[in-house]
Amino acid sequence: VVGAFGRFCQHRRVAKVASARAPFVRVMTSPVAAGQGLPVVTVTKIIDHSHLNADGMLSLSTLLKWMDITACLAAELHCRKMSVTISMDEVSFPAEEYGKVAVGQALLLRGQVNNAFNTSMEVGVLVTSEALGTGATATVCLAFFIFVAIDESGGKARVEPVVPVTFEEQHEFALAAERRKVRIKRRQVEKTMASRLLPSPPVSPVTLRGSAVRSSQFGSTSAARTSRRSWVGARAQETLQSMDTTQLVLPHHANHHGNTFGGQIMAWMAEFASILSSRQAKASLAGGRPAGAVQVHIEAIDALHFISPSKTGDRISLHGHVTRVFGTSMEVEISVRAYDVAGGQESARHINNGFLVVQVLGGDGQPLALRPSRADMTGDDPESRPRHEAAASREAVRALRRQMGSLQAGAMTWSEDLKEEMCICNLWGVLRISHVDEWHELAAMPRGSPLPAPLAALNAGSDVSPADIALSANLCTWGLPLLSIRGCLSVDTPPPLVFELLKSPERRAAWDVLLKEGRLVRQIGPDNAIVHEVFEPLSGDLGRPHDYALISSWRCESDGSYVIASRSIVVEEVPPSPQYQRGEVLPSGWWIQPQTDGTGSELTYVIQMRAELLGVGTDIASARKVAFSLMPSLLGLVRLLQCGAGAGAEGQEGLGSDLRQDLLTKMRTLFHRGSSETKKNEQVVEGATTGPFVSLLSGSRG
User: CA–CA separation, 481 vs 408, rounded Å?
Assistant: First the structure.
């Protein structure tokens, strides 16, 4: 999952349609009326050889144009007015997935208007490929565009709000509002981070060789001579490349109201960046020319913002720099300006600035090692050195954003500059796992039904279920070695009271038997906090307690529901302690919904864990074992809510110390007995491992 936010519905299977002259295009639209959900447009294309670049991969220039067209169709479907591209959020094109798009496959581009803000709209575009022979699908990329509606005079026009209907649409709607806050602060955040970089020590100016090439789209004669130099000569170039190019906006480059398509501008930028990075690769490849062929691949594009429009007949001037070379990638900055023939370059107006991350791939599709650039390679251009330094800051931001969206790393490295984005990612992670469809049922205990004897002992002696409780698991979540557990509860307490109880780390001790200590480290605005929680050990030789440094985020939705999310972070305020064993948890938390009659609450608790850190597998037996360890806490929560949500306000009033210790002892006894018996008596019945935890969570009294 890269950088971004959101999840879309399942896509329809597209039949293969042969076409001798052009790819098959089908536009499927959802009707737009009050109460009918978010506007959706699906554009489908068949990949043929004309869509590939010289390296046999789908041309990114072509894809960017298709994405912009799809977003425009969705935006205009909603607002019923002409719309123009204002910006595109950062988007990644991982080589391992992008390179699988092949001739003959169908490419599905699904555009959905997630939210509308007075005159602008956020449109998410999800691109997936489909092998028509087998029906196998794969995600290619996900991007978010901002479009503005314009009236007949060219001014901004107001748009009607969108009306989300389904649960998924409501959360896309809410997340779009959160992303808007991030966009407003993004530029200031990046400037602030760049300003804190220390300047490199001054060096003697270095004469640029071959870096100020003036060329057309494919380079001038002198540029061609430069590209035909030997690899040895190219490697000797200790400079960062730069070049210019100019394009003429022809009628087929413009949209239906005369402005240059934003997708066409992005396509020119991608082509230009490929040429520039190819030249830089000859000088920067570590170890010289590889044995096989090499190709450049644009791995990511930072957020783009279109400042002013251009039209048919304008000249588009692109000026590009390789700002910095990293270990396996390089950053290319491209500045785009437009001018008309009458005013000349003196009348040029700024269109946008873009930063593209480019990798050099070997014949096996893997990134090749590059020699990192140095500050003394920037030459005598006074702006080159600041660009070189700022590129390091942007790369650090990209690394943090990749970490936010990744489930491979458990703990995020905390950044004050990106705290808003981190908190949004935290919430998004919980909503994302809540939408997973494939859950394996582990247990269902309706209110008043008999509890298994071990759980009755942990339920203050009562042998019946105090609420409707269901447990389920998702194995190998997202195709990764992750184990996800979901617990669903129905209680009679209104959502606001449940929310106030669950969001407080201090009050968690009132119902969670395993929590040893919970404290608020720092409040971050009204809806987020850094917390530190310490839990009693349950398995193994008991050993040290486990502690967690967490970012906790919560939101109240327009429908009266609440979301509470937590994820592990690395932060100086909560350093690891030798008395605790530091644990990691992926986005996990609560979703609290009002019941249909408005009296009670439907609670969903989801937790995502890296199986190897827990020392368990991603099978049913492991899922039951982990789910069992959650049951006493869920029962304690229900018991506290039944006694009144105000109980436990000081953190210890819900569970007395004697009762807490008694329940903890019983849990450890049952847990260890179950673990040892499971190892001796494992059996496989209908694909599930049976043992004491099966009977414990199946509702059986045995």
Answer: 9
Judged by DSSP in three states, 496 sits in helix
- AA letter at 32: V
The token pair that represents 679 in the structure block: 């190892």
Q: How far apart are CA 153 and CA 679, in angstroms?
A: 76
- Cβ–Cβ < 8 Å for 72, 255: yes
CB 700: neighbour CB atoms within 10 A?
12
Distance CA 330, CA 282 (A): 13
Instruction: Output the DSSP codes for 284-311.
Output: HBTTSS-SS--EEEEEEE--EE--S--B
Q: Is the dihedral of CA 574, 189, 263, 180 positive or negative?
A: positive
Q: Tokens representing 272?
A: 């230009």
Q: pLDDT (tens digit, 9 = 90+) per residue, 382-426?
A: 788 888 888 988 888 888 888 887 776 668 889 888 888 888 888
pTM over 0.70: yes
Q: Which helix (H) or strand (E) holds 524?
A: strand 515-524
CA distance 5 to 120: 19
Given a contact cutoff of 8 angstroms between Cβ atoms, the answer to whether 20 and 107 are in contact is no
> Tokens in use for 522?
């720092």
Q: Kindly give the pairing relationship between strand 546-556 and strand 581-582.
A: parallel
**Sequence-distant (≥ 6) Cβ neighbours of residue 181 within 8 angstroms:** 420
The rounded percent of the chain whose pLDDT value lies above 70 is 74
Number of helices followed by number of strands (H, E) in the chain: 15, 27
Give the C-alpha separation, 177 to 651, whole Å. 34
Q: Identify the sign of the CA torsion 230, 232, 233, 235.
A: positive
Structural contact between residues 431 and 601, judged by C-beta atoms closer than 8 angstroms: no
Angle between helices 384-405 and 419-434 (to 10 degrees): 30
- Tell me how far apart the alpha carbons of residues 381 and 631 are, in angstroms, rounded to a whole number: 65
Q: For residue 552, is pLDDT > 60? A: yes
